[in-house]
Amino acid sequence: MNDNRPLFSVSCQTELEARLERLTALRGWKPRALGKLVSDWRRMVSDIANGYENFGIDDYMNELYLRSMLQDLIDNSADECSGELAAALRPIDDDFLSLTVEARWSFGATPAWCNRVPKRPWPDLRDRLIADGLM
Q1: Is the pTM of this model over 0.90?
Q2: Rounded to whole angstroms, how far apart are CA atoms 116 and 16?
């Protein structure tokens, strides 16, 4: 979203930020602000669209972890706030799905985005995906 409208209602922003803080502490994640997490996921999808050069499979998997963090937040928040977060992520997720295909086999993660690879992987990632039997 490039306009200046907030992504979430004030009450959900507060709840989601508090929930994220608790989840990061519980799971040992690096602390992040909710807006930064969403913008990092948006940037990652944009990077895929633009070729995501100079990154390997480990970088790619670390980036997918961002979306897993957001899903954990959706799964552990009140329905209204989960819905607001899911709605904010939907267009980004749709872009991600359009830019990727299912890997030949699972990376071992349940969420669908963790088992997808770019349709047009950059050379280093393509070579690793082929070597690992994912493409």
Answers
A1: no
A2: 27
* HSE toward the beta carbon, residue 92, CA cutoff 13 A: 24
pLDDT in tens, 16-32: 999 999 988 888 888 88
Nearest residue to 5 via CA among 33, 35, 31, 32:
35
- Compute CA distances 57 → 35, 76, 92, 116, whole Å: 25, 29, 21, 12
Residues 6+ apart with CB under 8 A from 12: 78, 80, 81, 84, 85
Domain boundaries, the chain: 31-131
Contact 2, 55 (CB under 8 A): no
Q: Is the dihedral of CA 101, 119, 117, 131 positive or negative?
A: positive
